[in-house]
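fyi for ur records
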Amino acid sequence: MRDLIYSVDKWTSYLWRGLVRDSAVVREHVERGRAKLATFPSFAREVFARLYSPPRPCPRTRPEDDWAKALHAALDELPAYKKLAAHCAHNKELASAATANLLEQLVERLPEPPSPLDDPEERRREVRGLLDFLAALNADDPTRAPLERRLEEAKARGRDAVAAMARFTDALDPDGLRQSLRRSVDECATDVEEITTSAAGLSGLGGAHTSSDATQALLSSTLKDSDALRRLGMLAGRMRRIAMGKRRTRTRHAAAELSDITTGSDLARVLPHELMKLTDPVLSLDFLRAFVEGALLQYELVGNEREGRGPMVVLIDDSDSMDGPPATFARAAALALADLALAERRACRLVRFSHRINAVLDLRVGRDTTKELLHFLSGPVDGGTSFELPLRAAREAIEQEAAYERADVVLITDGEAELSHEFLREWTQRARREGLTTYAIHIGAHVPAVLRALTPEVTGLPALDPERLAAGLFDRVTSPPCA
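which gave:
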């Protein structure tokens, strides 16, 4: 397989071979293209390479490859193609899905030649081989004449192959190509952008910005096939940004007390007499030097920023009434809370419950639990509602597991369930005695009295509004505990 318009590196070529081997869809498109053009597999590989890891253009191209140049140009003229390539960069799963989509459209738009078109480069290699063989023969060698006739025949076949490829290129309809590709590229770019955004919402909890290639591949392949997880990931990403914004605001406001004079390049803290240097042409140069070197005199501000609080146990209602947007919202809110907890190096346990405990997931700082998290989030809603069962499970974790000692508890529900007076009295007394806080999020128009009895820290959500959580729960869990 030779390069046509772009020079594809060995690693990308290796990934492409694996894709063709493992993907029946891609393999089908490549074979359909090969039935028209012998060099179509090379073009298909270049389409994948341009999405996965932009290759260098070949310094020289052959005239018979102008059809490939025209197809690449048609892609380049689509505004959404650059966005698509940016999202697919170095992500094999996304690049593979996008390549399959593009190849399907391209194969359909290729003209139908009378017969499969040969690669003229094969004829050139034949001609060069014959010339080398003839050069080694004496002028009077009896085999020379038939070889010369064969050489002329090879040259003629090569000229015919080049001419056939030129006619094929002329038969291309660039406007038609762009028209058919535009919708495909737009849809593919939107699809890949959603997957990328969703993957960001479901990974990197607690500020862990790095993830392995295997984790990214798992996220991409799972999100390709699950619209529900994709919606959850996008909502979770939004909630996590809101929650972490609250945390950053609290951190910035913590440092507000003048402590000392230090050096640096923070213009908001630079001493007035340093700024006065900017009024003098000579001293301004000294100011700029000090700024670049971080040597400007500036105020040092300190504050009493709260250290991380205790661990967190998040209880997520999984009953039948939560089916649809409420379940998506609840799980996204739980991920935002887990993000806050892990960012402060606090352990976090997520529990899905209905009339039973449906799933439990422990999250720890520095531990990659992406596979387990996707499985946890994919579980269906099912059953009735019990508050006492998950609250007792949270209490057992606090009492029996060192990682959850003095954990705060968050209950997310849209329903109502009974809690006995005895249970409420015991829960309240233990919480007061041990300094624990219980939070509740209620999805629905009216907060049930049982949640008010359980805790004063109740956030009511008449509508599924993430901003309401920012002013309610997120603001509270990022604030210092009461003395």
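The first strand starts at residue 6 and ends at 7. thats all i got for now
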